[in-house]
Amino acid sequence: MNSILNVHNLKVGFYQNNKIAIAVNEISFFVNSGETVCIVGESGCGKTVTALSILRLIPPNGKIIDGNIIFKDKNLITLDEEDMRTIRGKEISMIFQEPLTSLNPVFTIQDQIAEAIYVHEKVDKKELKRRIIELLKLVGISAPEKRLNNYPHQLSGGQRQRIMIAIALACNPKLIIADEPTTALDVTVQAQILTLFKKLQNKYGISLLYITHDLSVVANIATRVYVMYAGIIVEEGDVFQIFYESKHPYTKGLLDSLPKKINRGKNLKSIPGMVPDLMHRPLGCPFHPRCNLCKDICTKELPGIKDIKDGHRIRCHIVA
Asked: What is the domain range of residue 137?
């Protein structure tokens, strides 16, 4: 398969009081055309910063320190801002976690989808309205003609997220980055949104980079998975390898914390401790303070990447 996105040795830091916190530490990954890649990990692991870096949308105190982000043979890091604007929304779209804060409360649904099209294309009003209605139908909004003049607060959470997907699809992008798009939704609506993603991928061959902490979502949609912890990728592989042949203690801890029928009535397992403060990152492997396999070398040296088999790789001193 041909890769549409190649991220190589990406390093991102945030400056505060003359100090720098490394949020993403030399990570590499790729997304093939038409596939779904998931980046999974706890809050604070660097998933969202990675996603924002691809579109060069990190906050002003942040900086891409090193690395390359290659999208269709273009290095997004070296493009000027005008060229990046032609890519954002048209070739790469992003769906954010909370649609109520992403949608403008004082503009109608029609106006907000229209803006996404106007930025990149010249379309007359009749054609514009037709396209908006088609987009609303595509994402499963019932009676779309009646929804055009609605405001975000007049819609349910699931409907708002569908509007966000419609905006993302407005200019037929090649890649969609979805940052925890179903976190705020109940499980029924979440399942509907995930089904919609699959339908759109099958119909248009869109590549999807899906950011989440929810492993049940990963199991439903992923082709390949990257597990992040404290700014580094600790394990990567296809969805079967991650769920059934996982090696890294952190990945195993995440999987063990999932509710299981056989443990009904028992307390859920959890990983002790917290994700480290970026300003006080531990030496060596960043997971060692929480790891039950920790050895002396883990506290001193960051492990290198080990190849297991067939694209399955881990960063761990102990696990072979």
From this structure: 104-172
